[in-house]
Specification:
alpha+beta; 8-stranded mixed sheet; binds adenosine-5'-diphosphate; 6-stranded mixed sheet; disordered N terminus; 588 residues
């Protein structure tokens, strides 16, 4: 993944005029490597910078560093350009490496220093001696910035908002605290739900916006905000068209959990929607020239005369600066990776792992609250039943749908594996240590690409026989054998008398077996900042906080008590776009 969408090349070519240091004497070529400090020539080296690789090309004569070219096209020009220039100047004028990284741009300048050092090693230099040749210290100041709209978070919602706003001519800056864009959106493994789309029509699928509304309302236990839900479903087809216009290629529609009709849209090969959405949005932002300040954290929303007037931010080097703006859009995602916050709102969810990326720490909720925002449905947290106990990696529900069963460490089944996420999770938590084992076999692996991937990634462990499975999970051999034979009977007879599972796909009678150890993990935080249908953030009295907008997982109300799979991407695109448009239209 590209680490920055900023396409401006910072190519610095600094030449020290020959003779200025009084050491430009030409030497006999054969003797140069023996008598000179360097083996004359041009050397290149690369180091990891702030946003991506920085490469340097260093030209040396026998006793002089003649030229240093730096290609730092991924770095943020406003911060890195001057700093890199000054470091290069210092190296050339001191003809030594005793140069410190520049305060305020430590990462980029340190990378340049390391790369130049590596190039000089190739040139046969005694770099330790060169490091003793000191240059003066340099410091740069990180300047405050300004834009029409500042967006906190470069996930699906923030980038959708940015595309809309920048597309209508507004100047936009996004701050993203992680080193990559995409947040949890990168992890959207399913598709995007939408009703009455052109793709459904082409396939002869009869689906309606009303049915989509009803399914989502039912799935959300009728706790969804009806107005927000209407906006979601009414704009869903438009969201798919929009993504496809950007090149997403979401042309396949299938049926998924909680939906009456096939309405989950994915790429043609059925692969995950998230990375595709992130890619097309990122490319569009690059085209529009929107700047994303990477590894930059919004720490405060500024206010002037009761209006949001920008943010305070902190970059990776610890520099604090302001971005003045006429509108602020909070698109910082949820708090699924912030266990303290999860426990604050849900005392029952202690010690859970998470399926979320590490940046899902609920900053946007805290920033919004400090600015006076009200919260909606904040205690509504969705747990996913089958995640890796150590890493939180999520195993798709499709595995159970395709025939996998769950055993506890005694080798017994304990639930209908196809009940809703919350019920299956609760049933796993009743087992010893809150752990269960997903049982799959070779036949399933051959047909299920996801399972094949878990085998490759070594989440799914192979056992030849049921005896080996029993030993691995610490259960009695006899218990495992009995459970599996009873399950085979259920599949064969079509009746699961014990747990009432109706979708009986696989007898699982033949090995080898692939076992995945699972526990429920925090998956989605449905609650968050309270917004109106135009994404304006509301205060506790239900009044609009001027100039402040929010979209995506940071908001509450859209999904009610439970989010249907496929609705997260609809949410971020529909409301992200509205946020970009409303913020742009209401600039003062
Ligand atoms: P959504 O699905 O709502 O777009 P994501 O999780 O995909 O949410 O994206 C939210 C993004 O916001 C993530 O990339 C995350 O790292 C970023 N983020 C969270 N808090 C901050 C913050 N304080 N400053 C800047 N970016 C933030």
């Amino acid at each position: 993944m590209r680490k920055s969408v900023r396409g401006i090349a910072v190519i610095l070519i600094l030449l020290l005029s020959l003779g200025a240091m009084g050491c430009g004497a030409k030497k006999d070529v054969e003797n140069q490597s023996e008598t000179g400090i360097f083996t004359p020539g041009t050397y290149t080296a690369e180091e990891k910078g702030h946003n991506g690789p920085i490469s340097v090309t260093v030209t040396v004569s026998a006793d002089k560093i003649e030229k240093i070219e730096v290609d730092a096209k991924n770095e943020t020009p406003a911060i890195a350009e001057k700093a890199i220039e000054s470091v290069v100047e210092k190296i050339l004028s001191a003809q030594g490496l005793g140069v410190d990284a520049v305060t305020g741009a430590t990462v980029s300048t340190d990378a340049v220093l390391k790369a130049v050092t590596a190039a000089l090693v190739q040139a046969g230099a005694d770099v330790e001696a060169l490091k003793n040749i000191k240059a003066e210290e340099i410091e740069i100041e990180v300047k405050d910035r300004e834009a029409d709209i500042v967006i906190i978070g470069a996930g699906g919602a923030g980038m959708s908002a940015a595309v809309e706003a920048a597309g209508s001519g507004k100047s936009v800056i996004i701050v993203e605290k992680m080193p990559i864009v995409g947040g949890n959106t990168n992890r959207a493994t399913g598709g995007i739900n939408a009703a009455e789309t052109s793709i459904q029509e082409q396939e002869g699928i009869k689906d309606t916006i009303e049915t989509f509304y009803d399914d989502t309302f039912k799935g959300g236990k009728e706790e969804n905000d009806p107005e927000l839900l209407s906006i979601l479903v009414e704009n869903s087809a438009g969201a798919v068209d929009w993504l496809n216009e950007l090149g997403a290629g979401l042309t396949r529609v299938s049926l998924s959990g909680g939906a009456t009709n096939p309405r989950i849209h994915t790429p043609a090969d059925g692969s995950a929607v998230g990375p595709v959405v992130v890619k097309v949005l990122q490319e569009k932002l690059e085209e529009l020239g929107v700047e994303i300040l990477m590894e930059t954290t919004a720490t405060k929303i500024l206010e002037e005369n009761g209006r949001a007037s920008g943010i305070e931010a902190s970059d990776i080097n610890g520099n604090t600066f302001k971005i003045d703006a006429k509108a602020v859009i909070i698109a910082a995602g949820g708090f699924g990776a912030n266990s303290d916050m999860v426990e604050t709102f849900r005392t029952d969810l202690v010690g859970f792992s998470t399926t979320n990326h590490s940046g899902a720490t609920g900053d946007g909720i805290e920033l919004g609250q400090e600015a006076g925002a009200a919260l909606d449905d904040i205690e509504m947290i969705q747990i996913h039943p089958t995640t890796d106990p150590e890493s939180g990696y999520m195993f798709t529900e499709g595995l159970r749908g395709d025939g996998a069963i769950l055993l506890n460490s005694e080798g017994r089944r304990f639930t209908d594996e196809l009940l809703t996420r919350d019920v299956v999770s609760a049933n796993i938590l009743k087992q010893k240590d809150g752990i269960a084992y997903l049982v799959t076999n070779e036949e399933m692996r051959a047909e299920n690409a996801a399972l094949a991937g878990y085998v490759t990634k070594e989440y799914a462990v192979k056992y030849e026989t049921l005896e080996e499975v029993a030993a691995a999970i610490g259960a009695d051999e006899a218990a495992v054998a009995e459970t599996m034979s009873r399950y085979k009977e259920a599949v064969t007879s079509g009746t699961d008398a014990e747990f009432g599972r109706t979708h009986l796909e696989q007898t699982l009678e033949e090995g080898p077996y692939y076992i995945l150890k699972v526990t429920p993990g925090i998956h989605h935080t449905m609650g968050g900042l309270k917004i109106d249908t135009q994404t304006r953030v509301l205060n506790v009295d239900g009044e609009i906080i001027e100039g402040l907008y929010a979209a995506g997982e940071v908001t509450g109300g859209v999904h009610g008590a439970n989010r249907i799979g496929g609705n997260a991407v609809t949410d971020i695109v529909v409301f992200g776009r509205i946020a970009g448009k409303t913020a742009g239209d209401e600039l003062k």
